[in-house]
Amino acid sequence: GVSYTHFHFGEDVRIKEKKTAVIDLADDLDTIFARFHDTTRNEIRKTYHMQDLAIVVEDQDIATLFVLHKKFERKQSRSPLSFPSFRASIFFSAYYKGELIACVACYHDEHSTRVRAIFSTRLFEKDNKDKYRIIAYATRRLIWEACQYGKRKGNILFALGALNFSDPARASITQFKLK
Asked: Which pLDDT tens digit goes with each residue over 142-157?
């Protein structure tokens, strides 16, 4: 299985054992992509034609990303990561019309790339159905970009993070990870 015990995340991080969604990166990219749910593949493809959407792999605007991360976590009454812990991540970001709308923060070792945090402006866009949809599509694209990154780095696994089947408030993120 996937183990986090050899990573050092700082004193403020505790490691718990949980079920994790994993994407096998051993195959070629076309085969990996073909294993995604058909709706997910279609949504990812649509992002390639969105002229106002910019995808940034290894985003270096850490201060802007951290502001959204804190806002997103606090909106859900959760504690954000500390800045030193946060900045140790690799960031895959989506900007719509120049505005940060989604980010997937990851880390990797010689075997795997792992999602550390997924955050976006979706909690603040519930009344704007079109933008909410763009954020959802962009976030799926960021997962795909992170998979490609892991593959380029020679990783054999991409871990999407813990799955929570018991908390109804986490049902939507669990469904997202399983598609």
From this structure: 999 999 999 999 999 9
Q: Contact at 8 Å (CB) between 59 and 50?
A: no
For residues 149 and 143, give the distance between their C-alpha atoms in angstroms, rounded to a whole number.
10
d(CA 124, CA 154): 37
Strand partners, 72: none
Q: Which residues pair with 105 in a beta bridge?
A: 91, 117
Nearest C-alpha neighbor of 160 from the set 114, 119, 117: 114
Task: Provide the whole-model pTM.
Answer: 0.82
Nearest to 116 by CA among 77, 153, 73: 73
pLDDT tens, N- to C-terminus, the chain (179 residues): 444 555 555 666 555 555 778 899 999 999 999 999 999 999 999 999 999 999 999 999 999 999 999 999 999 999 999 999 999 999 999 999 999 999 999 988 888 999 999 999 999 988 899 999 999 999 999 999 999 999 999 999 999 876 544 545 543 443 444 44
